């Protein structure tokens, strides 16, 4: 399909992420010099009513309660998928078969087999893809990556990573797509983020030894219901990991982390220095290098500013801070660039499939109680 000078967006899902995507699509053109204008063409949601009401609020000109009408619409160029995980594959496959660029939320799908099918379809069709690992858009993570690549931390020896939140921290939070045995659980939901981050900063993970734990064996069937239903997925996952480059470490995915709201955090240790970061303070990167003189060494706090591209597209002054939604705006700018050039953005479906392979290996390891190579 020839790239239209206007990128006409079809967004599926009007929940937490749908709202975040819509905000990014509305905002990106005002902050970035994009190669195509963004048009909010159509919003699909589970019903005609919720689709119409949210389309009005988000600024989409059309709406539908039937997502296949959107994925097959010839007047749409980019399909953005923010529906429950189990719907990612059928939605993406249909969009790809209609020649669309596909922007899909994480995790890419519910299993490695499914992710492989999606990536094969992309390769066959030559489609352009991007996956919503938005935390990688933080300019400070790019800074960390540059420091690692330049050898400022020496040889990387260890990674300790965690994505911990508290939105399922009691047994009162109800079932949702997040507890669907097909593609649910903390490892899929949050582990996908910390694995993508580990891969981005340190490299491929070669093998894992994981343990999964269900803290609350039953939860209300739905919000406000007194009927309790069994939980078949993990509330927390812990894994020892070995990277292909020899570094070792741990990852944790935990949605029952009492007191934690957004602790997507890591510490990376190298032979000459180390860095640590938490998304709860996403404008701060803490760096220690052995360059400090005696009595003057310690962690340096680097704060986001115009020197960290693309912070300057949001604000010319340091210290004013980026927020979570800004990461999605940066991601959408990358998406439009990828769509127009026809080159995949990062992370694309192939990279997200490698993340899925790591999740899969962790699950197998937890079942067999053995180290498991990542396929
Ligand atoms: N990147 C991130 O930081 C991040 C954060 C949260 C969620 N997510 C991902 O985004 C996706 C959605 O999560 P959420 O928190 O927005 O969920 P949500 O429940 O808030 O929203 C899901 C939306 O999908 C709609 N939907 C359900 N079935 C549908 C169907 N058949 N057709 C059309 N629409 C349908 C629902 O009506 C709802 O509006 C998940 O894959 C999740 O993992 C990513």
CATH superfamily of the largest domain: Dihydrodipicolinate Reductase, domain 2
Helix content: 25-40%
Q: What is the CATH C level class of the largest domain, in words?
A: Alpha Beta
- The number of distinct helices, counting runs of at least 4 residues, comes to 10
- Give the overall shape, derived from the CA principal axes: globular
- Could you tell me how far the N terminus lies from the C terminus, measured between alpha carbons in angstroms? 34 Å
Bound molecules: nicotinamide-adenine-dinucleotide
> Major beta sheet, specifics?
9 strands, mixed
Strand content: 25-35%
Number of structurally distinct domains: 2
Strands ordered across the widest β-sheet: 16-15-14-13-7-12-11-8-17
Helix/strand order: EHEHEHEHEHEHEHEEEEEEEEEHHHE
Short description:
With 375 residues, the protein is of the alpha/beta class.
Q: What is the secondary structure topology, with strand pairs?
A:
Layout: E1 6-12, H1 16-31, E2 37-44, H2 48-58, E3 62-64, H3 67-71, E4 78-81, H4 88-97, E5 101-104, H5 112-125, E6 129-131, H6 139-149, E7 156-164, H7 186-201, E8 205-213, E9 218-220, E10 228-230, E11 236-243, E12 248-254, E13 263-270, E14 273-278, E15 284-289, E16 300-303, H8 311-314, H9 324-341, H10 349-368, E17 372-373
Parallel strand pairs: 1-2, 1-4, 2-3, 4-5, 5-6, 7-12
Antiparallel strand pairs: 7-13, 8-11, 8-17, 9-10, 11-12, 13-14, 14-15, 15-16
